[in-house]
Amino acid sequence: MQISKIAVLVAVLGTVFTVSMMLSVNAKNLGDSSSKPVLQRMIVLSDIEADPDDSQTFIRLFLYANQIELQGLIATTSVHQKNMAAVSSIEYLIDGYKQVKTNLALHEEGFPEAKELRAIVKQGLPVYGMQGVGDGKDSEGSDWIIKVLEQSDPRPLWISVWGGANTLAQALFKLKNNKSEEELNQLISKLRIYTISDQDDSGAWIRKNFPKLFYIVSPGGYGAATWTGINSYVKGIDNHTISNQWLLDNIQQAHGPLGAMYPDVAYGMEGDTPSWLSLVPNGLNEPNYPNWGGWGGRYELYIPQLKDMDPSGFTGGVVVEPETRAIWTNAIDQYTPPVAGEYGRTLKPGNQTFKGYKETLWRWRDAIQNDFASRMDWTIKSYKEANHPPVPKLNHDQNIIVKSGSSFHLDARGSSDPDGDSLSYYWFNYPEVGSMEKQPVKVDSAENMARVHVKAPVVTQTETLQFVLQVTDRGTPALTRYKRVHVKVIP
What we know:
This protein is an alpha/beta fold. The protein has 2 domains: about 15-330, Ribonucleoside hydrolase-like (Inosine-uridine Nucleoside N-ribohydrolase, Chain A), CATH 3.90.245.10; about 390-490, Sandwich (Immunoglobulin-like). Helices cover about 25% and strands about 20% of the residues. It contains 13 helices and 18 strands. The strands form 6 sheets. The chain has a 6-stranded parallel sheet with strand order 3-2-1-4-5-6, with helices on both faces. A 4-stranded mixed sheet has the order 13-18-17-15, with no helix packed on it. A two-stranded antiparallel sheet has the order 7-8. Strand 17 (about 465-475) and strand 18 (about 480-490) form a beta hairpin. Helix 2 runs parallel beside helix 3 and helix 5 (about 140-150) packs across helix 6.
């Protein structure tokens, strides 16, 4: 799909990014993997039971409940389920989590008790869309969003919307009617919304009425959505990790009580999972910068044209409306998957290149799935029996300045693995993240060494580049962690 970009940076983003910079890893520690990331906090809105994929996504999410601070699990409606909000279905899955929580804690600290998760399960009104927004239409769910948002916590509050957004819309409606403009703007500045398309008519209403709200969405038909990269079959690559057999072998069967709860795919595997994947602290994800890309995809801030939103595609019946302001939405990556060599260089760029918005997500898919499989292993295995992610380490700052045309090195020697596994490395320039998208800068040596050589481009003005390090262990399943290096090239 061809995207027409309108470079619109809303003034409020100055405030948004000021907050996000404070929450990012301190610049002095950017090369130090020992510094603990600040956990993102999140409320989920889910139309669970409309499709098995919500249950699938909850099961995966609970395995990361120590890496994202869950502050609300709210059952809602959607265009696919207009008058039921299935609280009991969330509680059922929490009961499964309760059975494995003790074993999970053998592998990483910080997993909440099941009773803590049960305490944040709430219900939205069991009505469709804007029928649930207005005077006297508060719900347990909408009131909970307000309560959490008003807490004295400097961190942003992510709202991960897997179905309809009307419970969020009602919370915003009430705040607008009960707060001063200054108070409302302060609260709005803390919100980060990611909705899986528009699954009721309240999403467009929110964006029109709250133009300063940080909002990630692929509006329109589902066929034009970045999130579909989580489960799309891609011709020309190995799609095994999203196959039913892979799910059976790695998640559903012989992987404990929580894995046994993972339902079969009906329409698509875990269509809601991309709404929170970029909150996982893996060294790649920087959720306050959607244009940097990560496990949940990459997004840019512009007003999409109606023709690019698949307006006649499947929406379940939600009307596709023209956007009235800039939103974080589909971005395009050009991606050449690396290939393994049987002899000689073990890993190098392949011969096939892909370009599109789904590529911004599926390019990470094998690493995402392996991470999921590993954590499901944690529910049944001892620490010694399971695999754990490697720890990348840079031997220089994450932000470096180089002169035009000069040579420099990127160095990850000293990276380690908690299980003592052998490590493989892969460095690449992410040209879409920086000012030289049309002039990608290749690694000027074998890309799979711990320390690689790069030659800076010749420039006449200051330019920016971003390089990504992937460190993958050779445990089973193989796990990947990342580091980003931001390079400023000066004349």
